[in-house]
């Protein structure tokens, strides 16, 4: 169980592979906070306006080892748990930064780590941990399938020692910054399998070798998120790059969703606390009619209410993270954490906007940028309505609604 006085141990490569550094949870949070302080509002505003990828920030996180926190020490990572990863992502977003620029580097490798062969793990994980290879692209979603992953059409046909991939993916973030991609594709047509979740396989694709067989089109969105359409036209992937057994990819992909939802809940909690911090500070300083606006209950009560919602979501997140690190595989906690945290963050975002009034719309304060970013997690990477369906069906035992 993670405690405030617990220590994390990570390799210190400058001292040799056996050297370690101990750090408490509070020290970890302070260290992340200090790093983020070097990338303030002006940095993120410039990146947002230019739709530029924040390379300097990502490089700093990589150099500090934070993006390799979930990779075992034997492969050069920090060897920490989801609970510690939650601390990192929460602090990043609470600082006003945006973890979405790099969070996938932290957890996308989980599919490879849990289900890949020893040869694949030895080939890729040390370079991912060192930051020499970027693995952020996670290619699952397709235009026609939507949330029904079993209906994807991208197909990987076995031809000798390779698979040939043809199809299309959409909303694949940071593929232009990635050297590697985790790809889910059909290897057996859906009308030839007994269960629609069968016949799906997972591959690790080396984009550096893809050439013209992979085409990427950026999607212009309301936030600086590096989302793209990806087209595969005869992409050859070595059979040795298949992760796990052929046809069992749906299970492999789903096994990583719980960690992802806990971690993204942490980002929303960080966002929620950012909005509460900004709103309470502004309400305490801003004077109208010769007194601070925070003396008005109509201003202070919504801020306090939003704060309590964020704290409640954090409690569910903490429970889900403890259970996950303890080996729990159910989706109840992770799904509820993602749902509650995204709603709490969005509530806090609106409260901050109300508190700042017209100035909330001004880019100089940063609230409007974070407001746009916070909206994403109500619908992605899983729509909150699907979370409601999951809880209704799998937790409360009600009949499926679809």
Rounded to the nearest angstrom, the distance between the terminal CA atoms is: 38 Å
Supply the number of helical segments.
12
Task: Write down how many β-strands occur, each being a DSSP E stretch of 2 or more residues.
Answer: 12
What is the oligomer described by this structure? Answer: single chain
Order of helices and strands: EEHHHHHHHEEEEEEEEHEEHHHH
Layout of helices and strands, plus pairs?
Elements: E1 7-11, E2 20-24, H1 25-37, H2 41-50, H3 55-64, H4 82-94, H5 103-107, H6 110-115, H7 118-130, E3 135-139, E4 155-159, E5 162-173, E6 180-186, E7 200-206, E8 214-218, E9 227-238, E10 242-243, H8 249-285, E11 287-288, E12 291-292, H9 297-325, H10 332-356, H11 367-375, H12 384-395
Parallel strand pairs: 3-6
Antiparallel strand pairs: 1-2, 4-5, 5-9, 6-7, 7-10, 8-9, 11-12
Helix pairs in contact: 1-4, 4-8, 8-9, 8-10, 9-10, 10-11, 10-12
Question: What is this entry, summarized?
Answer:
With 402 residues, this protein is an alpha+beta fold. It contains twelve helices and twelve strands. The protein folds into three domains: 7-130, Orthogonal Bundle (Butyryl-Coa Dehydrogenase, subunit A, domain 1), CATH 1.10.540; 135-248, Butyryl-CoA Dehydrogenase, subunit A, domain 2, CATH 2.40.110.10; 251-395, Up-down Bundle (Butyryl-CoA Dehydrogenase, subunit A, domain 3), CATH 1.20.140.10.
